Amino acid sequence: MAVNYEDQTILFDFVVKQGNGVKGLIDSGMSCVPQPFVQPPSERIATLNGQTCEAAQPIDLSQLDGPHHKEVAKQIVEAAETLGFFQVVNHGVSIELLELLKTSAHEFFAQPPEKKAIYLKEVSPNKLVKYGTSFVPEKEKAIEWKDYVSMLYTNDHEALQHWPQPCREVALAFLKSSMQMVKRVVEVLMEDVGVRLEEERMNSLMGTKMVNMNYYPTCPSPELTIGVGRHSDMGMLTVLLQDGIGGLYVRLDNGDWAEIPPLNGALVINVGDTLQILSNGKYKSAEHRVRTTNIGSRVSVPIFTAPNPSEKIGPLPQVVKRDGVARYKELLFQDYMNNFFSQPHDGKKSLDFARAD
Which residues form the Fe2OG dioxygenase domain (predicted)? Predict the structure, then answer.
């Protein structure tokens, strides 16, 4: 199909509204980046003289249940307090499953556009699956170079019935095999602030679970684009599978950006806004972004864990007592989520919505 790359309305309709995605642009024979995808210079990612962050050193989660528990717990806590990102190995998810995930992600996005477009937000046959391009493309100054499919978990039966066929079984297996690890990490972090969450409260704080598959097509001019703009995640913890291409960057305390390199068999874990709020700022939701590449199409598969929409979030009483002040107000997570999705990615500004007056 011939696409008029100069007419921005036609281009937007082709990519976003018709569901062809960024991949559809590449498949149409596009050889240069259209203007709607060109980022302002301040948002572009320079890879020359790039640095690698300390999260390159993975934490061995199998040691949590042995004589090295305190040492490993300390590593987790320190990473959550400083960078907000860390990589883990021996996490309980099989290497074979991780490889299948990457394969199934490529299989989903390799489908004809019409098979993916049935899951566009406006026409999706159910609320569990959403396919699209960029974050909120209608409001962004420049569109992100990313297609994605989101799969919301309610129960096994509905996942196997409604999630897309090419990836439903492997995505569900990834979610279910990761949740014990996620709860274990949360327990370690809560223990360090003197809190023991009851099972019901733990389940409510992670009652919203979603598996995404992200696809970053090969880009002819990666220096002009971004895969995902600067942001932090809104939930408790995010678990991320990277492929071998890489491109995930995290912001350091000094304002510099460093890449978290992909490690075979490892998973990336990062702190979300909810955990920063609960801990009264002790744990840092990590500001991060994703670059594009011209060496191949990249996939990543995150699991997002977040509270139930009806759950109230705010600094835990034990932490406020320790700190002497509540840095965030109590609010309904539904309200926080609505605010988060109402605006383009812009660093950690979403947290301002929860700050105490």
Answer: 201-307
Q: Hey, what amino acid is at 223?
A: E
Q: Is the pTM of this model over 0.90?
A: yes
Q: What is the CATH number of the domain that holds 253?
A: 2.60.120.330
The tally of CA atoms less than 13 A away on the side-chain side of residue 204 is 13
Dmax over CA atoms of the chain, in Å, equals: 63
Strands 85-89 and 59-60: parallel
Q: Which two tokens stand for residue 344?
A: 């383009």
* Continuous H helices in 82-167: 95-109, 113-117, 156-162
The helix (H) or strand (E) run that includes residue 199 is: helix 199-205
**Overall domain count for the chain:** 1
What are the beta bridge partners of residue 241? 301
Give the Cα separation of 222 and 125 in Å (integer).
Answer: 35
In a domain, 313, yes or no: yes
Per-residue pLDDT tens digits for 161-201? 999 999 999 999 999 999 999 999 999 999 999 999 999 99
